[in-house]
UniProtKB/TrEMBL annotation:
Keyword Membrane (UniProt): yes
Entry-linked InterPro entries: HATPase_C_sf, HATPase_dom, Sensor_HK_TwoCompSys, Sig_transdc_His_kin_sub3_dim/P
Keyword entries, A-Z: ATP-binding, Kinase, Membrane, Nucleotide-binding, Phosphoprotein, Transferase, Transmembrane, Transmembrane helix, Two-component regulatory system
Region (Disordered): 298-318
Designated name of the protein: histidine kinase
The protein's enzyme class: transferase
Keyword Cell wall biogenesis/degradation in record: no
Gene3D superfamilies in UniProt: 1.20.5.1930, Histidine kinase-like ATPase, C-terminal domain
Reaction it catalyzes: ATP + protein L-histidine = ADP + protein N-phospho-L-histidine
GO CC terms: membrane
EC number(s) on file: 2.7.13.3
Pfam families membership: HATPase_c (PF02518), HisKA_3 (PF07730)
Membrane-spanning ranges: 32-49, 61-78, 107-125, 132-151, 171-197
Length: 454
């Protein structure tokens, strides 16, 4: 860890020398296009400069100048795949060309080539420590070369000759001004390339972190959904056991009673045996219907669901128990209004059970996660519509309560109950204040069950 209180620590933090993340780069079509465009622009500029006579003082053959331009442009093709190697080669190319072909090195396209190569070295280097070392050495070498030209070489003499007629300034002489200006421009050039490349690297790093976080969230969400499905199916398996045990026991008792009545053969026993057999038939039908319902839920919702369920075991809550549920919610301080529209008492038992559970879950969410002080439950049944339906809608007047976000498993259970009956689901914030849970069940395949809640 670096001490952020000092400049070295802040620089280490900015350049992320402790970060092991690697930015992967490859050679693509875009890199070849960049190299080709830069090459054409550099050669055109070179010949235009030659045309105005600027290269007349150069003794180098034309083909050598072309090779210098071509090799410089070729560096950009590989800048993302081998960033630090290309940066080193660009520094070497700049030095050699500057010594032997200074006019070619000073061309604007060539300066752009070097800048992009140094920028890519900072932006695409795999190791941030290696980047700092390599780019630092390149910068030091370039400034050492510049200082050598001023101190040992003929740079100062050339500056004096070029500024012989200049009057200068009262504060700074022409030679000093030229040296300072050249140094400042080179400083901005190299530091700009390195800092700009590091900023680009940090941007890529942040995008990678966001992508990784999004993938983690998606994976966790999928795990929560799968867990909810497993828990729901385990619960349904227990209900299936209860349904089978309950109805088989009823069938056994009624069948035994009917057999005894037939064996006695007394007057009036025939009617009693007929009634017992009718109860056996009704119980068997209800049991089969309920098992189909539970097995339909256990099946993959994306699979075959042509025959949807209608059963529910008798101990489960039904519409007759809904007032007691609403009274319990009211006792907690939430005002609940209930409205029934249409022949709600004719709903089949399993559908009534689903309605009860949906209302229960929705009101529980209001109490846990909302600031609402009032909720409304509306149950609508319309058998005269083109597509008969039963719809339950729960709304409230609150806002989400901070710090109370749940796992979402309850609403997932609502969606599963709706999916098994091919129902439409609308869950989310209302256009005005509050939240709404609305589920519309089709009644086309609903089979009314005797003893429905009234």
């Amino acid at each position: 860890m670096h001490d952020d209180a000092g400049s070295p620590g802040r620089l280490a933090t900015f350049f992320a020398t402790d970060d092991d993340w690697e930015r992967k780069g490859s050679i693509g079509l875009g890199d070849w296009l960049v190299g080709a465009v830069v090459l054409v622009a550099s050669l055109i500029t070179l010949e235009l400069i030659r045309g105005v006579g600027t290269l007349d003082s150069s003794d180098a053959p034309t083909w050598v100048e072309w090779i210098a331009v071509i090799t410089g442009a070729a560096l950009l093709v590989f800048r993302r795949r081998f960033p630090l190697t290309i940066a080193l080669l660009a520094g070497l190319h700049m030095f050699v060309t500057g010594v032997w072909l200074p006019m070619v090195m000073g061309l604007l396209p060539m300066q752009i080539i070097y800048f992009v190569a140094f920028f890519a070295g900072a932006a695409w280097a795999r190791s941030r420590r290696d980047m700092v070392v390599v780019m630092g050495l390149i910068t030091l070498f370039m400034f050492a070369w510049l200082s050598w030209q001023y101190a040992v070489g003929s740079g100062i003499d050339e500056i004096r000759e070029s500024t012989a007629d200049a009057e200068g300034s009262a504060l700074v002489g022409p030679v000093t001004a030229y040296v300072l200006l050249t140094t400042l421009m080179n400083l901005l050039y190299f530091i700009g390339a390195i800092v700009g490349g590091q900023v680009a690297w940090r941007g890529a790093r942040q995008k990678a972190e966001l992508a990784a976080q999004a993938a983690t969230i998606a994976a966790q969400s999928g795990q929560l959904q799968r867990r909810a499905v497993i828990e729901e199916r385990l619960r349904i398996a227990r209900e299936l056991h209860d349904v089978v045990a309950h109805h088989v026991a009823v069938v056994g008792v009624q069948a035994a009673a009917g057999r005894k009545l037939l064996e006695r053969g007394r007057p009036g026993d025939i009617e009693g045996a007929t009634e017992a057999l009718g109860n056996v038939e009704a119980s068997a039908r209800e049991g089969v219907t309920q098992m189909r319902s539970l097995l339909g839920t256990l099946r993959d919702p994306a699979g075959d669901a042509d025959s949807e369920p209608d059963g529910v075991r008798s101990p489960e809550p039904r519409l007759a128990d809904l007032p007691a549920l609403l009274d319990e919610v009211r006792e907690s301080g939430l005002r609940v209004d209930y409205e029934a529209v249409g022949p709600v008492s004719d709903l089949p038992l399993p559908l009534a059970h689903s309605v009860y559970r949906i209302v229960q879950e929705a009101l529980a969410n209001v109490r846990r996660h909302s600031t609402a002080d009032r909720a409304q439950v509306v149950l609508r049944v319309d058998r005269t519509a083109a597509a008969p339906y039963a719809e339950v809608e729960i709304t409230d007047n609150g806002r989400p309560r901070h710090g109370t976000s749940g796992s979402g498993l309850g609403l997932l259970g609502v969606r599963e109950r709706a999916a098994v009956r091919k129902a439409e689901v609308d869950i989310g914030p209302r256009a005005v204040q509050g939240f709404r849970v609305r589920v519309r069940f089709p009644l086309d395949s609903a089979v009314p069950s005797a003893g429905a809640a009234r």
